[in-house]
Amino acid sequence: MKSKILNSVKLFSFILLSIIYLEILFKVRVLTIDFDMNLFRAILFSLSYSILVMFFLSFFKEKTVRRIVFALTVIITFLYINQEIYNSFVEGFYSITVAGDFTMGLSFLNDYLYAFRFWHIFYIFPIASLYLLNRYHLITFNIEYSTLKQPLIVLMLGFLTFFGSLQTINETVESTENIITYSDMDLYTYMYNSQDALKKFGLLTYTQRDFFSLFRENPLSESEYDVLLDDFFENRDPHYYNAYSRIFVDNNFILIMAESLDTFAINEELTPNLYNLKTNYAYFENFYSPLYYRSTADSEFLVQTSFYPDKNVTLSMSAYAENTFKYTLPKMFSDKGYVTYSFHNYTDYFYPRTDFHTHALGYDYYMGSEELGMLDNPEPGKIIFNHAWQSDLELMEKSLDCHTYSEFENCVNILDGEDKFFLNYVTVSGHFKYAADHEIAKLNEDLVTQYEIDNGIELDEEIFYYLAANIELDKALGYLFSELDRTGHLDDTVIMIFGDHYAYGIDKETIWEYDDMKDDGSDMDIHNVPMLVYSNSFLLNGVIDNYMSTIDVMPTLSNLFGLRFDYTKVFGVDVLGTSENYVRFADMSFVSEYYSYQSLSEEYIIIDEHVTPEYLAAMNHRIINDYKYNLLVLQYDYFKKEDEEE
């Protein structure tokens, strides 16, 4: 009996210390570590989980216990490693729902392995310790209970510790007039901010809450949510006519979302067309493309619908493909008599763009790489490890020559036709990883080498191949401008080009070293990417300093082109109608000209003396509230009711 108690104490100590070690290491590596209530709470939760694991193990024989403990140690260890590596790519934390895209994740296995760093070896310490403790018989696994009373006591102790942990979570908030406020207990219940939840509760508790959220039932009925959303939208501020309203009315429009287009990709010698746009036309210097849960696909979702993506689904583009979106860019341009096209030079392997663009968004035509004769769609279920990224120049050439994709011999090229057109492009040439085997970068590496020679410099390898890849995008722009000139459309066409996200395939430290636009060390400013607009309007020209992000693109374009649109029914704003807009990030941080809030440090920075801490605290709650209403609109397909009534 005494031997089993000693064995249990040793095993329990190993499990508890391993979890605490991993929690602290993860905080140090990814979040922030302070000896405060958050750390104490994480340790208390770890204690409860360790006790409950011991309860579970007490029902098994020694050999089985050994196998379970080894398996749990490996699983938990790699949970921490995987979250750090995932965060290093997209600055977020994955949910269990992402498991639905497991095969897609496997396709990036090479990049995942490439992301391992020396410091990750410290995560392996619990596994190595368990191996050595077992090898030298310093820990044994013979802990099977003798009487039923023993595991029941352990179970009761585990639950008491767990509920004690819950008591440390604050359920009160400071009163804020006319604003719905959220406590730490609301965060624990609804997990609306992954980073905040990890910081305050620990990774295992985040995972536990994430799992049980799959089974949470909504407290209200669908009709009750309709009333709630009706009230919410009715109380939103209206949009007002401004100096930029309708300045592009009846112009053709080309929208280009460029893969990983970052501020340091604009180079007078290497990317002259981008440089020309930045220096001679409109440049939004405070445009941000925040990373959400599925990077490019979520940026696309934000731009085309002006709704935030849902972190609780595998992919918003798939989960809400059958939703009714009353307002989308192609639908609004179609209402004005435009023919709408969307082009992309990759397959539907990662994202189901064919269905989403034609059915949910409402484009008249969508053509991916297969339809354009560039790259065939892979067989269903096939895992691809090496991705053949395609040329942006070839995308532009083929999309503007209908003979390359039309089944009709007497087709009329888009730019040669008489219809007004809206062309949407999603490019891919700038996709990581930036190395010598990058298919597109290889086409232009001689140009970058000559640039190094001419300037007497030696670029970092990743920067070198990143620039080489983006030369292809610049060539595509050059071809587009030549075709617009040839067909007489330079004067009646507007072009907007922006980056879908920053070049996260490159280490941040390297970006800060080479980029003279971003604030070094700023995890918010890293998301500042180019937004360029070509037009013949003297009103929209030069540097535009309004703060703007991807969710604001659709309302801003609606105002510029005079599209039929209810601005109160989306979550972006017309940034040209206000100088007080802010950019909101996935972790609920936000930044504007006058203030900023960093969620990780919970630090407010006030630039304008007229802004008060109380105002920013209220804004923090307002942003959370807007996001929750945004999810309700998606989850309950709010606009379906309006569509049926019409």
Quickly give the CATH architecture of the largest domain: 3-Layer(aba) Sandwich
The major β-sheet equals: 8 strands, mixed
- Beta-strand content bin: 5-15%
Radius of gyration: 27 Å
Poorly predicted segments? none
The CATH topology label of the largest domain is: Alkaline Phosphatase, subunit A
Please give the count of helices.
23
The CATH superfamily of the largest domain is Alkaline Phosphatase, subunit A
> What is the total domain count?
2
Helix content: 40-55%
Mean of pLDDT: 91
The counted number of beta strands is 14
What is the approximate shape?
globular
Q: Specify the structural class.
A: alpha/beta
Report the end-to-end length measured between terminal Cα atoms: 76 Å
How would you describe this structure to a colleague?
It contains 23 helices and 14 strands. Helix 2 (37-57) runs antiparallel to helix 7. It has helices at 2-30, 37-57, 62-90, 102-106, 109-114, 125-135, 149-166, 184-190, 194-201, 203-212, 222-234, 272-280, 295-305, 316-319, 329-335, 353-361, 392-399, 441-455, 461-486, 508-514, 553-561, 613-635, 638-645, and strands at 252-258, 282-284, 287-288, 339-344, 365-367, 421-426, 493-499, 531-534, 542-544, 548-549, 582-584, 590-592, 595-598, 603-606. A hairpin with a 4-residue loop joins strand 13 and strand 14 (603-606). The chain has 2 domains: 2-170, no CATH class; 252-583, 3-Layer(aba) Sandwich (Alkaline Phosphatase, subunit A), CATH 3.40.720.10. It has an 8-stranded mixed beta sheet with strand order 5-4-6-1-7-8-2-9. It is an alpha/beta fold and 646 residues long. The N and C termini lie far apart (76 Å).
